[in-house]
Amino acid sequence: MTTSYWNIYRLATDVLKDSETCIEWLMEQELLPRSRNCPKCKKEMKLEIGIHGWGRFRCRKKHSSGGPVERQLTQNTLFEGAKITSMKAVLLIYAFATKMSFDQAIRETSLEGEQTSSETVTDWYSYCRETCMDTLDCKYDEGEIGGEGHIVEIDECKIGRRKYNKGRMIDGHWILGMIDRE
Fold first, then answer.
1. How buried is residue 13: exposed, middle or buried, by Cβ count under 10 Å (0-12/13-18/19+)?
2. For residue range 127-176, what is the model confidence (pLDDT) as tens digits?
3. Which residue of 54, 121, 134, 146 has the fewest C-beta atoms within 10 A of its own C-beta?
4. For 19-50, b where at least 16 C-beta lie within 10 A, e where not — what string?
5. Domain coordinates in residue numbering, the chain
6. Does residue 33 surpass a pLDDT of 90?
7. Per-residue DSSP letters for 4-35?
8. CA atoms within 13 A on the CB side of 79
């Protein structure tokens, strides 16, 4: 079995050729839906890529409510509400996953003369962290770790600082961490 690794060069040559190629890749990775059914007539809606931002699904049938039903391509996905292009979103997620610094992320995600703002990088890094935490919360919703035959590592740390660099007492907060090695 061959393991496939992604790097910025492979991402640029295989995925980021244009918006349509990027969206098709996101569909292959199951990060965007390939199809949606109309909530009114239950028939499959037509996909129009690049319309109204990333794209949309549109029902071919005219409904009695006054017109065709439309749904954004990104609705109920990781990218819902994104105000950046699909290519920039993929690059920002790659920058987060490879632990690029903010300055590196700004430089590497600036496309076609449009520089990525530090606010955009901050927002997307924060969003990626929240998504990771939500995924972990869903995966480990029991709230318990350990058990018979499991090794649990425990460590504690006090985060704070001394005032005026005097004395031994440190005002701060205790952090307790536990991990199940199994």
1. exposed
2. 999 988 888 777 766 667 788 888 989 998 877 766 666 666 667 778 88
3. 134
4. beebbbbbbeeebbbeebebeeeeeebebebe
5. 8-139, 148-182
6. yes
7. P---HHHHHHHTTTSHHHHHHHHHHTTSS-S-
8. 23
